[in-house]
Structure formats: C-alpha cells, structure tokens
Amino acid sequence: MKNIFYYLMLNMLNLFILLVILLMSIAFLTLLERKILGFIQMRKGPNKVGVMGILQPFSDAIKLLNKELFYIYKSNYYLFYLCPLLNFSLMMFIWLVFPFYTNIYFLNYSILLMIIFLTLGSYLIIFMAWSANSNYSMMGAIRSVSQMLSYEVSFILIIFVLMFMSESYSFLDFMKFQENFWFLLVMYPLFIMYFISIMVELNRSPMDLIEGESELVSGFNIEYFSGGFTLIFLAEYGMIIFFSFISGVLFISVSYKLFFFFINIFSSLIIIMRGLLPRMRYDELMYMCWKIILPLILMYIILMMSMKFMMMMMIY
Q1: Which of 32, 44, 68, 244 could be stapled to 266 by a disulfide with Cβ–Cβ 3.0 to 4.6 Å?
Q2: pTM of the entire structure?
Q3: What is the maximum alpha-carbon separation in the chain?
C-alpha cells in the first residue's frame, strides 16, 4: 500500500513539473515570437523589462490578469467563461499522449487519442463564439468549422500514411521504427503538406482567417478579456509547442540534442511564417485544401500502399 502511494505521488509530481515547464515554455515562446518579428521588421522588440526584455512575458501576464472582469449583456454567461477554461484544459490533456520516457503511463493508441482531442477543439471555438452573442465572433466560428474540418481530413490522412508505414498507433513505436531512417527524408513532400495542415489547425498566419484582424477585428475571441483571453492565449501557444514535439516524433527519431534542435527550428519556422507571408484569401485556402493537398495525399497513399505491397511480395 505504501509503495502504491509513493508511486502515485511520484506521478503527480511529474505531471506538476510538466505543467510548470509547459507554462514557462509558453511564456518564453511569446518572447521569442516578438523578438523574431522585431528582427524581421527591423526593430528591437521588447527590451525594457529585465535584461534584454527577458521578463516581458511576466509583465504581460500581470497586466492581462489585472484587467477588469465584467458581465457581457445578452451573452450566455456560464458558457462564455467556461469555454476558455475547457480550451486550456484540452491543451493540457493532449500532452498525455506524448511518449514520455518515464513511468507515468503508456498508451498503445496515443495517436487516435490525439486526433480525438484535436477534433474537440473546433467545438470549443464554436461554443465560445456563440456564447459571446457577437456577429464578428459568429463569423469567425463559421470559418473555423469549414476550415478546421477541411484540413483535419488531410491531417488525418497524413497520419494514416505514417501509421500504415510503422504499423502502429503508438508514438513510441514511431520512434523505434525510425531508428534506422527518418520519415522526414523519405516523405518530405508529405511533411510540407503536414506543415500546412498544422498551420491551419493552429490558426497561425497566414492561415489565421478565424481571427483575421483586418476582416473580423479579432474573430471568435473578440469579446474575451482578462483571464478568459489569457487562457485562450495559453492554449494557442501551448498547442504550438505540442505540435513541435509531435512533429519531431512523427518524422525524426534521434538523440535528445538533435530532437530539441528540431523542435526549436519547427517553432521558429511557425513564427517566421507570420512575419514573412501575407494572410491568404479564404476561398484560396479552401481551394488549396480540396483541390491541391487532398488529391496529392491520396496519390501518396496509393503510392505507399503499392510500394509496401511490392516489398511484402519480395519478402514472402
């Protein structure tokens, strides 16, 4: 009984440390984004709070949480304030599928669980927009439904190709399967389509049409402020870090030094895209999904299945 208690306490401590590290990573990711955007736009970026602006994220957090919290007339009050908390909780729960080399847990169907969690995110955006009772937020929600569902099809098909090659639903098996070669080297066209789908899932520029400031002011989160906006903000940047980790698991399997180097490169690339590319037109985004990316992925699936069938025929 005492051993079970120590085991549970150790696991709870590991999860608490994960939460703290994740929140600190989100804080400094925002600082990295502002520094990179400042470099692209030929300005300094934040450099006043602390040494070279290193304490700027904590200053922003205090400022956001000190904002007044008030009731919006004709809004669904309980759902309006519950959805950001659920959105942040969903971001935390999705980290349970990551293959940690500890004794916390082991999931044989972690990839399927990740797809379920990602699908739930679009519902929360719809509920946040509807509960605010705002025209701009509802337009952002309508865009989110069509945009996310469209690109979730291509994203799931890409994951299907990788699962078909590794013959497993577990991220740990993906890492073991790539000990001799990387999927990134043999499937780099698939990685490019995967990256585009991830940018849409994360609502990042140039695919941030759900929050298009030039058209919808701020989209689905226009009425959020103080703690609600902070939770939405944390969930968005937490998902950027999560997809950086998962992309490393899906496409490479190397030592920890190179793995974290890939994570830094992937996160920085997502930020750089915001500073370099203009926002796409909505019809062009849908056209690219259904008429370019999806047919290419289907052709890739047929090619991979044919190659694997021929290899099995040669073996047996």
Answers
A1: 244
A2: 0.87
A3: 70
